[in-house]
Amino acid sequence: MLEHCPCLIEVALPIREISAESVRDKSLRHGHISTLHLWWARRPLAASRAVVFASLVPDPDDPRCPAEFRAAVERHLKTQVPAELKYYRRGRQVHRDEDPYRPYEGMPDTLRNRLLMFIAKWSPESLAFEAGKAKREPDPKYLLDDRSLVKWETSDPENPQGREVLRIAQELVKAAYGGETPTVLDPFAGGGAIPLEAGRLGCQAIANDYNPVAYLILRATCEFPQKYGKPGWRRVGGAGFQPAEPRTSFDSLPVRSSCPKSYATQFPALGVGRSHLLRHVFNLGSIRHPGSATLDCAQGFTALEW
After folding, report:
1. Which DSSP category does 155 fall into?
2. ∠234-36-303 over CA atoms, to 5°?
3. CA spacing 20 to 30 A to 289: which of 104, 135, 174, 196?
4. Which domain holds residue 81?
5. Whole-angstrom distance, CA of residue 239 vs CA of residue 186
6. 137 with 244, same domain?
């Protein structure tokens, strides 16, 4: 447990790398939760994922860090890195990289630095540009290493490397809490970036917001995909469309459950009307849904209202 050991976010964080991906996050549209509904204080998913993860895990270089967590970091990020993470692709070319989380040249090879590299690490192209070995800065998509936790592609359930990265992140979070599932509370959840990323990291997320618009955005972001969605691409809407059973579209989904009657009257249907379901939201694991407002599972979500 983290009773006496400082969290990683209190010691170090790869700010430049996270900022680069957060800038890119603003230009993402297809499959991004920002396309659900305009929210004026929306947090970048990259920054939210990094902050939640770094707030949950301890500093492995601190002498008070639990031995189980240090062992998990060394196992997952150094000695037993999965085979799926020992390469990266550029088009049709596959480049071998047996040690993806080794620190930058000149940095000591410590567990803390490896954990920072796991959160966000510059790509080989970015490092070559900064060293003056390349004339052009890489495209925003290739600024970070493909095996970085905060990268947008990591949340794609069809990306095998992304699945492995998220699995490792969930294992590290559990190791930091003695194998138990931590609970993350966001009392002013707004657009839902923080509870969404907490659920993606394997936590029980509790979100709250006074605004009824935020309440509906939260449910559409974190609850409805787990309850009604399935991973993958599917066309929805259009002429002659007949919804399958069980229903897999967000269109005309009734708003009820714990939402007050006045809200249900004011917002009788979600009516998102997108051409594709949000596949990046679906990568939250296997969910058992026992109730209408609370998801009783390790990667669950609870929507609260006043």
Report:
1. G
2. 105
3. 174
4. 1-180
5. 40
6. no
